[in-house]
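Hi F.,

I've been meaning to write this up properly since the lab meeting, where we talked about keeping a consistent format for the predictions we share between groups. The idea is simple: the sequence comes first, exactly as it goes in, then the structure tokens exactly as they come out, then a line or two of notes. No screenshots and no reformatting. I'm using this chain as the first example so we have something concrete to point to.
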Amino acid sequence: MRRTSPANVRAQALSEVPFEFVNARLRGRRSRFYEGARLRELTRERTVEDLAWRLFPGEEVSDPSALERRMLSACAAELDSVTAYLAGPQLALVRALLDRYAVENLKVLLRLFAPEGQGADPAAHLIDLPPALSLPVEELAGSGGVEGFIARIPLGTVRECAQQALPLYGETGRRAYLEMAFDKGYWTGVREALEGLPPGERRQCSAPVACEFDAMGLLGTLRASSTYGIPWEQWETLLPAGWGRISRGQLRRIHANPELGDVVESLPWLQRVLGDSVSPDEAPDLGRLEEALWHEAVRLANRQYYEMLAGPAVLVSYFYLKREELRHLLALTQMLRYGEGEAQIVEYLGV
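Output, unedited:
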């Protein structure tokens, strides 16, 4: 007879709690975010070591890179903790969104797997992730070749997309193509998880996800064309199936004409997103464009966070707002690292 352990009973009970309870917990957690006045308090710290002690008291955080990995780990653990209260398609969606952290570790492992990275300690480079997001590091590192490495990837859609990209990698020797295929697999998984939601819930929660998906496709296309010189025929195979506002045809035209003015003409809504941060007359500044698109995703997440009182919309919003907090903390770490003063940090963070 199969026995049910107390831990499994507890997990099942937690997964059956109503969304009102989950949403109330998330709103309580957000009150502890480092944003507004709480973030401004952190700008008074004078060194990276001071910031590390403030955020993770009693822990040994040796350098800025270690602190950044610790921040990433804490963010992933916080977001993963929400899954204890979820089940069904809502759980599948949050799991799919969280796979981004496993994908980032996969990219690191692939670089360490290359000849120039062999001998490095993976623990010094990987994000420490919760068990549900962890990878079989030793098994992947012990693969006999790139093909074996990819065959051992536990994320189904990521593995499949990487296997499809192997001929392109073999033809060019460019590891970046495999990393792009990892991203394609990630977004394919997110799309499938969104499609698993009831239509009403999908409409309510998908705006910030679709915005980030569009940003990925647009920025990737601009870099493929103007930075890496990747032909459209190759780049198209690395793009996930479209489900945002930007069509495949529009991306093809942008690839052919990557000047920002032409991009805005193809995507009129982009001018509102850019505001005064980027002028259409300038050469493309992909860093500022990426920042503007991310702020749009956060704006959409914040709007649905306050408009929707129940359902997965609050979960998705929380996912983006927590990542926005992380971006601020990472930026603060870098500014302290390079000796920026409090006034400059406050201005940059907008607090």
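Notes:
DSSP finds 19 helices and no strands in the chain.
The mean pLDDT is 89.

If this format works for you, I'll send the rest the same way.

G.
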